[in-house]
Amino acid sequence: MQYFVNVVLPIPLEKLFTYSVSEEEAEFLQVGMRVAVPFGKSKIYTGLVHDIHTEPPGVYEAKEIHQILDEHPIVHPVQLQHWSWIASYYMCTLGEVFRSAVPSAFLLESETVILKNERTEVDESRLKDDEFLVFEALQHRSSLSVQDISDIVERKNVLPILNRLLERNVILLKEELQERYKPKMVRHINLGKDYRTDAALEQLLEKLVRAPKQSQVVLALFQLQGGTKNPITIRELEKVSGCSSAIIKALIDKGILEEQLRRTDRVVYQGDGLEVQSKGLNEYQENALNEIKQSFEKEKVALLHGVTSSGKTEVYVKLLEACIATGKQALYLLPEIALTTQLISRLQDYFGEKVSVYHSKYSIQERVEVWNNVLMGKPKAQIVIGARSALFLPFANLGLIIVDEEHEASFKQYDPAPRYHARDAAVVLGNLHKAKILLGSATPSIESFYNVSREKYGYASIKRRYGDVLMPEMELVDLKEQTKKRRMKGHFSERLLEEITETLDNREQVILFQNRRGYAPIVECTTCGHSPQCPNCDVSLTYHQHRQQLRCHYCGHHMAFPQSCVACGSPTLDTKGFGTEQVEKELHALFPEVKVGRMDLDSTRGKYSYEKIISAFEAQELDILVGTQMLTKGLDFRHVGLVGIMNADALLNFPDFRAHERSFQLLTQVAGRAGRTKKRGKVIIQTYNPYHQILKQVSTNDYDGMYKEQLYDREQYHYPPTHRIIKITFKHRDYNKLNEASLWFAKSLRNLSNIQVLGPEYPPVARIRNQYLKNVIVKMAKQTSLRQTKNSIKRIEKSFNAISQYKAVRVIYNVDYV
User: 0.85 exceeded by the pTM?
Assistant: First the structure.
C-alpha cells in the first residue's frame, strides 16, 4: 500500500502539497513533525506534516520526501487548528501563518552550493578575470556559497558569472539544507581519572611544587568542587584561580585535567532563587478578582477595567498563582517589548525561574529554546510573558491567558501576513484549550466594552488607584493664546516650564510626550518653498539632527543634511514641526544642569536598550524622559510628579475613524504615569483646541462619555463594533494599471448583496517603496455571514487574477483593520 503525507509549506500558496512516504516512514511520522521536501525544479523546503493518508493526488504525481527532520512533533494538533482559524479568518494562507508562527531557525530552506566539475578539462586562458577568481577558489575549497563568491569577486550580482561558468561546464550547482539552530556548548573541567583519590591528589600537588601556577589551578578546582555538585566551567576556574587559560590548557594536555563540552540552555534565570510573597489585595482589587472568577465560572472572557495605577498587575499575579498551582501553563501578553522588561523582574520576584520571555528582540537561538521548553512543558516555561508572537508557542496544557493593555493597536500585525489581532486570536486560542481568558486595560477598546454591554464578556472594574492616591490633576494649556501673548519658549508654554521647574525642585521626575521621533518632520526652503521628498515614497524626509541626516520613516532612505536648497541653491533652510529630538535639545538649553533621556524607536534599537533607559529612569539617574507612545504603555515609575503632553492636536486630527478613541486612550495612558505613589501627580496638555470634546473627556476621566459618543458615531457610519470591516489594499508600480485594477475589483464587489463598498481611494501616503497603493473598504452588518462574504471576495480575486494585465497587481486583505 502506498502512503502519503499532506504538508504545509512556508510559502503563500492556498493548498497543502502531497508527498509519498514509505510504510516505515508513515508509521514513524506524526502530525506536527517537520520534513524536508523538494519543491519546484531544485528547491528544498521545510514542510510541516498536516495529515498522513493513502490517497494519491489526482492532478500530479507525488514526489518522495527528502528527509525527516524531527523525532517528535514540534507543533501540537490544537496549534494547527488555531493556525487554520487564523488563515481562514484573516484571509491568508496556512503557509504564511506557519512561517510567521515558528522561529525562523526551524525553517531550513536549502542554500545553493557551488562545486567544481571534476569531469571537465578547463582552459584557464579562456576564463575572464572574475571567472578565474571563482575557479581558483574552488581549487582550494570543496564548495562555495553564493555569498562566498560575492565576497571573492567583490560584486553583489554574481548570477551572470555563475551562468557563464555553468555554460562552460566549469561548475555544478547543488542544493544543501543548512541547520540554523546550534545548541550552546560550554566548556567544563574536571580532574583527570587518575587523580580523583586523595592519595593521588596529594602526590600530584607534591609533583607541582615547582609549578606554583598549575598547583594553584588544581587547588582552586578542588575548592570549587567541594562546594557544589554542579560541573565547573573553565571561566569559573580562571576567575577563582586567577590564572590564564594557557595554564589550564597545559594541565589538560598533561592529562591532569579533563575537558568536557556540555549543552547549556541560553535562557537562564538570573535571580537568587528566593521567591517573594505576592502583595495582599485591597478591597477594590479583591472585589474585582471575585467578579473575574465569577465570569470564569460562566466560561466567559473577562474584561478588567482598572484606572491607571489601580494595581491590575497584582490581580493578574493572584490569577497566575492559582493557575500554576493546578500545574497548567499561563500566557501573559503585552503590546510592547518595553513593558516586558519592567514586568519580567516583577514576575520573577514572585515566580522565580518559572517565567520565560518570548519576543522579537530575543535571538533566533533563544527563541528556539523557549519554544522547546514550552513544548516539553518544562517548569521554567510555566508562565510565558511576551509580545504578540508568544501566542504561537506550542502550549499543551494552557490554563490562563492574560492580555494586558488589550486596547493597544500594537497587538495588530500589519506586515507581512497573517495580519492578525493578537487579542482576538488569544480569545480563540483560549477557547480551543478551554483556558480562562482575561483582558485588562485602563481604557478598554470600544469593541471589548461593546461585548461587555451585550453580556458576551464578563466585567470587573477598579475605580480607585492603589493606596487611594488621587487621579492626576489635568490642566489644558491654550497654545494659541500663549503664542499670541509671546509666552512660548521654543515649544514650551510658560505654564509647562513653571511646572517642570517646580517638579525638579521637589526632586521629582518629569515625562514629556511627543508622538513623533526625529528632530523635525519637514525641512523647507524659505526662499522657494521646496521641501526634500523621499524618492521612493510620497512623504517628506524627516530631519534627524544627531546624525545630520534626512531620513524616510517608511522605506529607510536617507541622505546627508544639505547645506543649501537643492532646488534654488539658497542657504535659507528652515524646519517645520518638531519631534522628540528637538524637545530633548530645547530641554538641554532651558535646563543645562538637568539629565535628560529619550525613548523612541531611534534610541531603543538594541536588545537591552529599553532596559537601560527604563532602569536609569527608575534609579533616578535621569530627571526628564522624553518619548513617543512607548512611554504610555503601562510603565510604572515611582517618582514621576509631572507629565507634559507637548501637542495633543497631532493625535486628534488624524484621518481615521479610530482617531478620537486612540487619542483618549493615549492621553489617558500617558497621564497615568504621573503621581503613582503617595503624592497626587499633575498633567499639562498643550493644545491649540482646548475646547475639543475628547480633551474634556480626558481631563475628567470620562470613559463612559467617550464610549457612548464614539459608539453613536460608529452606528451612524457603519463602523466596528456594530459592523464588520475588511480593508483591501492594491499595490503596483504602475499608477494607471493600479487605478484600472482597483476600479474593476470595486465594481465587482458592488454586485455582492448585503455589503457596503467605499473606494477605491488613495491613502494619506499613496506610494511606499515605489509601489502605489489604493484602498477599498468593505463594510457589513454583524448579522451578514462573514464566511460567505469572504468566499465571494476570494471568487472575485480568482477572476481578477485570470485577467493578464491585472495579474501582477498585489491584493492584500486586512480583516478588522485597526
Answer: no
pLDDT confidence of residue 230 = 61
Cα–Cα separations (whole angstroms), residue 802 to 98, 806, 807, 811: 27, 8, 7, 13
For the chain, list residues with pLDDT below 70: 42, 109-111, 175-187, 225-231, 260-276, 278, 338-342, 604-608, 632-636, 675-678, 818
Whether the CA torsion 165, 167, 169, 174 is positive or negative: it is positive
The H or E element that residue 200 is part of is: helix 198-207
Amino acid at 750: R
Question: What is the homologous superfamily of the domain 283-467 according to CATH?
Answer: P-loop containing nucleotide triphosphate hydrolases (3.40.50.300)
Share of the chain above pLDDT 90, in %: 25
List own/partner pairs for 452-457 with CB under 8 A and 24 or more apart. Answer: 452/303, 456/300, 456/301, 457/295, 457/300, 457/301, 457/302, 457/303
Domain ranges of the chain: 3-106, 110-177, 193-255, 283-467, 473-516+580-712, 520-577, 722-815
Q: What is the pLDDT of residues 713-750, one digit of tens each?
A: 989 989 989 999 999 999 999 999 999 999 999 999 99
**729 grid coordinates:** 489594499
Strand partners, 405: none
Contacts of 546 (CB under 8 A, 6+ apart): 519, 581
Domains 283-467 and 473-516+580-712 belong to one CATH topology: yes
Q: How many CB atoms lie within 10 A of CB 227?
A: 8
Phi/psi for 522 (5° steps) reads: -135, 135
Measured CA to CA, the distance from residue 805 to residue 731 in angstroms comes to 14
Single-letter code of the amino acid located at 440: G
Sole residue written with cell 520573577:
348
Name residues whose C-beta falls within 8 Å of residue 189's C-beta, 6 or more positions apart in sequence.
221, 231, 232, 233, 234, 237, 248, 252, 257, 258, 259, 260
CA distances from 591 to 642, 685, 751, 780 (A): 16, 20, 64, 55
Q: pLDDT value at position 578?
A: 86
Q: How far apart are CA 781 and CA 538, in angstroms?
A: 34
| Cα pseudo-dihedral 124, 129, 135, 138, rounded to 10 | 140
Q: What are phi and psi of 83, to 5 degrees?
A: -60, -40
CATH architecture of 3-106: 3-Layer(aba) Sandwich (3.40)
* Residues 6+ positions from 663 with CB-CB distance below 8 Å: 648, 651, 652, 694, 698
| Exposed e or buried b per residue across 160-189, where buried means at least 16 C-beta atoms within 10 angstroms of its C-beta | ebbebbeeeebbbeeeebeeebeeeeebbb
> 327 φ, ψ to 5°?
85, 10
Write the CATH number of the domain with boundaries 473-516+580-712. 3.40.50.300
pLDDT score for 365? 78
Residue 550: Cβ within 10 Å count: 21
Q: Across-strand partners of 421?
A: 412
Which cell goes with 131?
A: 571567472
pLDDT digits (tens, 9 = 90+) for 182-233: 555 566 777 777 777 777 777 777 777 777 877 787 777 777 766 555 667 7
CB atoms within 10 A of CB 356: 25
Q: Hey, how many other C-beta atoms are within 10 angstroms of the C-beta on 83?
A: 24
Report d(CA 539, CA 501) in Å as an integer: 38
- Write down the CATH number for the domain with range 722-815: 3.30.70.600
